Amino acid sequence: MPTRIVQMVVAIAALVLALTMTRTDAFAHSDKESCSETSANVGKMNADGTGVSCDAETGAPNKATAKATDESVASSEALDGGNSASSASGEGAEADALSEDGAKATATVSGANAGAGATSASGTTKATAKGDDSEADSFIEDTGGGEATSTATDGAEAVAEITSTGGGDAVASATDATAMAFSKVEGGGGGKANSDSSGEGSDAAAFAEGGGVAKATASKGADVTAAAGAAGSCRAIANGSGAGSEVEAQCDNTGSVVTATATKGSFAFGSDSGPPTCTPMNGGKAKVRSPGGNCG
Question: Which of 167, 190, 224, 276 lies most in the core, judged by the most C-beta atoms within 10 Å?
């Protein structure tokens, strides 16, 4: 992550407080605050704790907008042609958006103690958290562009990130308390990583590089991982349902396709570099289709 981005992310948490202390016009009389700036650094906070900050000073013109209601905080920072938008509602909720060099970042949160963060060194990031204690975060840390989108609902957590050049598409969606979805495009060369998790305790993770495609879907407490990495395109698709189910699909060779499915606490592991494993449990199913062999 560029040093400047790290510094900006750390600074965001203190930004609203600092601006409140230094501006005599910062206090208002309602639980709604907003700001919109293209070249200035402003902040507003009222007595109940609802606050916003918009920082568009560096490398103007930029676009920074923020809206907050119901004792929440929203902050937007845009640098060197960036476009940042944040919106927050609900007691203790926080939305932070940071963009630079023509990138776009959007963070939207609703629900008590929920959070959303979007950071774009390039490309487009969008983070949306809905419901109490939900957390959504999207990051693009390098200059290769791409899109990172995270959506968390009803107390879940979702993270989507692109950590290297080459762009790509990272999408993470999670629903229900303690559900987790994580998508990451890494290692250069782009790719597509898509994770979807629903149901308490479900965990879906997708990793892509080198133009590969990874898709992980978990429900009802399953633990699912899909990983795709190749100097070209390969596809890894993993689906799991039911508490205790574990599923992994991995591909590393150009053009190969690996699919793995497990239900009701079963186990399914497939790759394009070795034999598969299928272990049905509790009347469920385990199935793998891969260049390394089939089972189930």
Answer: 224
